[in-house]
Specification:
The protein contains 18 helices and six strands. It is of the alpha/beta class. The protein folds into three domains: about 120 residues, HUPs (Rossmann fold, 3-Layer(aba) Sandwich); about 110 residues, Serine Threonine Protein Phosphatase 5, Tetratricopeptide repeat; about 170 residues, DNA Cyclobutane Dipyrimidine Photolyase, subunit A, domain 3. Strands 1, 2, 3, 4, 5 and 6 form a six-stranded parallel β-sheet that branches. The termini are far apart. The structure holds flavin-adenine dinucleotide. The site of flavin-adenine dinucleotide has 27 residues, from α8, α10, α13 and α15. Belongs to the DNA photolyase family. Keywords: Chromophore, FAD, Flavoprotein, Lyase. Its EC number is 4.1.99.3.
C-alpha cells in the first residue's frame, strides 16, 4: 500500500524528514497538496505559493497531486481512494494547523497521520525553562535554543520512493498565479539565493542588515515561509563560520523560532495583546483615523522613510526589517491606530507573511509584546531615516516624487515637500507626547 506525503509548509525535496519517514515504510508514495482556500486565498503570497507548487511539481516530474477544498475532507477521501497505509506530514504549530490536523487524524480512522520534523530547527514547545514553563523573553530563549542544538540536514533523496501518478477523482490542475510571483519560486531558487547571500553579503551582515539602502539581507523569508529551504540547512552551512555575520544570522533565525514558540505556547496572542494592560489602550477611530490609515497604506504620510517602506511593500511584497519597525511604530505611536490594522495589511501584502513572526513583530513594536523594549522608546521616523538610509538612496528608490532631493536632505525636506508629495500628516513631536500620555493612562490603571 502506498503512503501519502502531504506537503504544506515544506515545498521542497531536499532535507525533508517526512520523505525519509515515508520511504522507510513504503516503496510507493503519493505527493499531495491541498489548496485550502482558508489560507492565502488571493494576493501575492498565494501567487508565490502557486509558483512554489509548480516548481515542486516539476521536480516530481508532474506527479504532484493537487486537490482543492477542506483538507479534513480531502485527505481522508484521498487516503481511502488510494488505500494508503499512512499519511506523512511535517508538524504544523499554528493554531489553525493544529486543529486541522487533529480533525484530519480523527477522520483518517485507522490510517495514522505521522508527523516528522517541523518548519523549525527546534520544534516549538521543545525549549522550556528548568521548571518546564515557556520562555517569554528572547535572550534566555536564545541561550537555551543554542544549548538544545539541532539536527544535521536530513539526507533525503526523492528517488528513494516511486511517486504515484494517480488519476485521483478530485485532482485539479495547479492554478495559474494571478500575477507572476514577485521572486523566483521554489527550492532551487531558494538554494541559489542562499548561496549568493553567503558569497556576497554574509560577512557584512552584522552591520549591513540594518541598512535598507544597501539591501544586504538574505531575502529568504518567503522561502522559509513555504519551506522551500529549511533553517536546518542554513544553520548547518553556518556551523564552521565564527564571524559576526554568521552569529547575527543565526540569531535572526532564532527570532523566527522564538515567535513560533510563543504562538505555540499562547495561541491567543495571534490576535490579543500579550501584555493585557494594552487592552485598555485608547485608539483613534472615525473618519480621520480611516484617512490616516489609508495614507499610511498608500505611502502618503509625508514621512519619506515611512512612505518608501509602504511602497516597497506594495511593489515587492516585502519590506526591509528596519523599515517594518519604523512603519509599525509610526502606525501605532504617531497615528495611534491598533497594531492589528497594520498587521492585517502586512498579511495581505507580504509574500513572507507568517502569523507568528508578523503578529509578534507588530506587538514587539507596539510595546505590548514579548519584550522588555520599553513603550516610551518611540521611533523618530526622520532620525531613523537619517541613521539607516544615510544618503537617502532607499527613499529615492521608492518615492519618485523625491528623486530631485539630493543626499540625506530627503529625510527632512528643509525646503518643504515638492508639490506632488504630501506635507507630514501629523507632527511627530506632538504625537510622541500623545502616545506617552496614553501609555501612562493605561499603566496608571493598574
Ligand atoms: P534576514 O535579515 O536575511 O534574516 C534571515 C531570516 O531570519 C529571515 O528570513 C527570517 O526568517 C528570520 N528573521 C529575521 N528577522 C526576524 C524577526 N525580527 N522576526 C522573526 N524572524 C526574523 N518576518 C516574516 O518572515 N514574516 C512576517 O510576516 C514578518 N512580519 C514582520 C512584521 C513586523 C512589524 C516586523 C518588525 C518584522 C516582521 N518580520 C516578519 C521579521 C523580518 O522583518 C523579516 O523576517 C525579514 O525582514 C525578512 O527579510 P530577510 O529574509 O532578508 O531577513
Amino acid at each position: 500500500r502506498p503512503s501519502i506525503v502531504w506537503f504544506r509548509r515544506d515545498l521542497r525535496l531536499g532535507d525533508l524528514p517526512t520523505l525519509s519517514a515515508a520511504a522507510a515504510e513504503s516503496d510507493v508514495a503519493a505527493a499531495v497538496f491541498v489548496l485550502d482556500d482558508r489560507l492565502a486565498a488571493r494576493g501575492p503570497r498565494r501567487d508565490m505559493m502557486l509558483g512554489c507548487l509548480r516548481a515542486l511539481d516539476e521536480q516530481l516530474g508532474g506527479r504532484l497531486i493537487v486537490v482543492r477544498g477542506d483538507p479534513t475532507v480531502q485527505i481522508p477521501a484521498l487516503a481511502r481512494e488510494l488505500e494508503a497505509a499512512t499519511v506523512h506530514v511535517s508538524a504544523d504549530f499554528t493554531p489553525y494547523g493544529r486543529s486541522r490536523d487533529r480533525l484530519v487524524e480523527q477522520e483518517l480512522g485507522d490510517v495514522p497521520l505521522i508527523r516528522t520534523g517541523s518548519p523549525y530547527a527546534v520544534a516549538p514547545g521543545r525549549v522550556v525553562k528548568g521548571d518546564g514553563t515557556a520562555y517569554r523573553v528572547f535572550r534566555p530563549f536564545q541561550r537555551a535554543w543554542h544549548e538544545h542544538g539541532w539536527r544535521a540536514p536530513a539526507r533525503t533523496d526523492a528517488e528513494t520512493v516511486g511517486w504515484l501518478d494517480a488519476a485521483v477523482r478530485a485532482r485539479v490542475e495547479i492554478p495559474r498565479p494571478d500575477a507572476a510571483p514577485l521572486i523566483a519560486a521554489g527550492e532551487t531558487a531558494a538554494l541559489t539565493r542562499w548561496h549568493e547571500f553567503i558569497a556576497a553579503d554574509l560577512a557584512d551582515y552584522a552591520d549591513g542588515r540594518d541598512r535598507p539602502d544597501l539591501d544586504q539581507t538574505s531575502r529568504l523569508s518567503a522561502y522559509l515561509k513555504f519551506g522551500c529551504i529549511h533553517p536546518r540547512t542554513l544553520l548547518y552551512d553556518l556551523r564552521t563560520r565564527a564571524d559576526d555575520g554568521a552569529a547575527k544570522y543565526r540569531s535572526e533565525l532564532c527570532w523566527r523560532e522564538f515567535y513560533a514558540d510563543v504562538l505555540h505556547q499562547r495561541p491567543e496572542t495571534a490576535y490579543r495583546n500579550q501584555d493585557a494592560r494594552f487592552d485598555a489602550m485608547p485608539y483613534d477611530d472615525g473618519p480621520s483615523a480611516d484617512d490616516a490609515f489609508d495614507a499610511w497604506c498608500r505611502g502618503r504620510t509625508g514621512y519619506p522613510i515611512v512612505d518608501a517602506g509602504m511602497r516597497q511593500l506594495t511593489a515587492e511584497g516585502w519590506m526591509h526589517n528596519r523599515v517594518r519597525m519604523i512603519v509599525a511604530s509610526f502606525l501605532t505611536k504617531d497615528l495611534h491606530l491598533p497594531w492589528w490594522w497594520g498587521a492585517r495589511h502586512f498579511m495581505d501584502r507580504l509574500i513572507d507573511g507568517d502569523l507568528a513572526s508578523n503578529q509578534h513583530g507588530w506587538q514587539w513594536v507596539a510595546g505590548c509584546g514579548t519584550d522588555a523594549a520599553p513603550y516610551f522608546r518611540v521611533f523618530n521616523p526622520t532620525v531613523q531615516g537619517e541613521k539607516f538610509d544615510p544618503d537617502g538612496d532607499y527613499v529615492r528608490r521608492w518615492v519618485p516624487e523625491l528623486r530631485g532631493v539630493a543626499g540625506r536632505r530627503v529625510h527632512r525636506l528643509p525646503d518643504g515637500p515638492p508639490s506632488d508629495y504630501p506635507q507630514p500628516i501629523v507632527d511627530h513631536a506632538v504625537e510622541r507626547r500623545e502616545a506617552l500620555d496614553r501609555y501612562s493612562e493605561i499603566t496608571a490603571k493598574r
